[in-house]
Amino acid sequence: MIRDNQKYFNRLLVLLDALVIGAAYWLSWFLWLSGYVRENEPGTGILSVEIYFTAFLAIVPGYLILYNASDLYSSKRTAKTVYEVFNIIKANTIGLLAVMVVLFAINIPDFSRGMVGVFYGINIIAETLMRKSVRYGLRRLRRKGYNVKHILLVGYSRAAEEYINKIKANPEWGYEVCGILDDHVPRGAVYKGVEVVGEIDSLHRILPGNELDEIGITLSLSDYDRLEDIVNICEKSGVHTKFIPDYNSVIPSRPYLEDLDGLAVVNIRRVPLTNMANMLIKRLVDILGAIVAIVLSSPLMLAAAIGIKTTSRGPLIFKQERVGLHNKPFQMYKFRSMEVQSDADEKKGWTTKNDPRVTKVGRLLRSTSIDELPQFFNVLKGDMSLIGPRPERPLFVEKFKEEIPRYMIKHQVRPGITGWAQVNGYRGDTSIKKRIEYDLYYIENWSMAFDFKILFLTFFKGFINKNAY
């Protein structure tokens, strides 16, 4: 069974981790200290190899404990590689700090701090490469049909269809849906190769065979009165059971749970930036980042100003009303990239490809995002953030809030100069629905690390964009 395979695989992974840690440790010693050991005589302040070997005997098990605490030995079938790399860096950073504290506490000044730093870098790289190789090998095996988890779904619903879609689109995960049980859809009905094999009461007959790795409860909302009984039946069988709710369109993938004296309360929307500490940290980073950005981009802004003023009549800065935090309007700044228009012409709609209203200099400014640089002053004022959903004009907000469910949630955070949607290509004349999906994902999964990731990606994907007209 897969559960046994996972147990043996974890033991193998622990062994591989121990080998990687050991190899990284001694490679670091060789690169940093082997020459000193050969060239220096005893009494020169260079510690013997035996001392480093003693430390090695403590470091290997210590790091394995840290890896376990950092969730590096749980199943990673569907997890993204970036999360595993983050946990590797986190565990090694804690390990580095722990080693430094121990060296200070027991007063060993001659133990090479440089070698410890080299070990930190080499171990992260080696561990990442090893685990990426293992992951790649496992995914190839799963694509060929090996190491596959067999899942039975209980209930035919939108959640069941969506779950099957995800499984079919990612064969490297190694999941196979072997059937669906449902009381309303007739036996023999098929969805993307997965057949309805019986009614829900068939669980009593199927589970004792113990040939399944998991049960997925995908009941439709109308059948939730049966949920408790189905969970009890599955729990008695010992088969791992997961619940895939049929209300993902309402509740996000990472809901915020509150414990009210033993009563679980699910908040419909998780917004980390409603936390005061998170808000203050983000605002501080915004202010510092905007100041640095204004200083660094000042030559570009000067060149843009000269280009605008020498090629077309009108103001240098274009101000436009946008909707920001808590639905409050503000004036967003941009370098003017169009001919001066009347209010009626301006409200005709979004800029499209080859729009005659855009000046020659403006086309260059738009395609390189230089026209957005004055928005750093919006950030300093507090109207905007460096990272966040792009703000829209009031007329579009009124339109979209009626057409797109959950559109107004984006106004629970400050709008940004760049965002998760923009670095994924949803900018300009692109799907507003997809843009909102990315904006909501950002709002619900915000962290400073996520902000820095978007900022990093902006340098490669956000400035030059084929959809920026």
Produce a short descriptive summary:
By secondary structure, the chain is of the alpha/beta class. It folds into 3 domains: 142 residues, no CATH class; 101 residues, Rossmann fold; 189 residues, no CATH class.
Tag the structure with descriptive keywords:
469 residues, Rossmann fold, 3 domains, 6-stranded mixed sheet, two-stranded antiparallel ribbon, 12% strand, flat
What does this structure look like?
- There is one protein chain.
- The strands form 4 sheets. A 6-stranded mixed sheet has the order 3-4-2-1-5-6, with helices on both faces. A two-stranded antiparallel ribbon has the order 7-8. A two-stranded antiparallel sheet has the order 9-10.
- It has 15 helices and 12 strands.
- It has helices spanning 2-39, 49-69, 81-105, 113-143, 158-169, 203-206, 227-237, 276-311, 343-346, 360-367, 375-381, 394-403, 420-423, 432-444, 448-462, and strands at residues 149-154, 175-181, 190-191, 194-198, 214-217, 240-243, 256-260, 263-267, 317-323, 329-335, 385-387, 416-418.
- The model is unreliable at 38-45 (pLDDT under 50).
- The radius of gyration is 29 Å and the shape is flat.
- The chain folds into 3 domains: 2-143, no CATH class; 149-249, 3-Layer(aba) Sandwich (Rossmann fold); 274-462, no CATH class.
- Helix content is 51%, strand content 12%.
- Strand 11, helix 12 and strand 12 (416-418) form a beta-alpha-beta unit.
- With 469 residues, the protein is of the alpha/beta class.
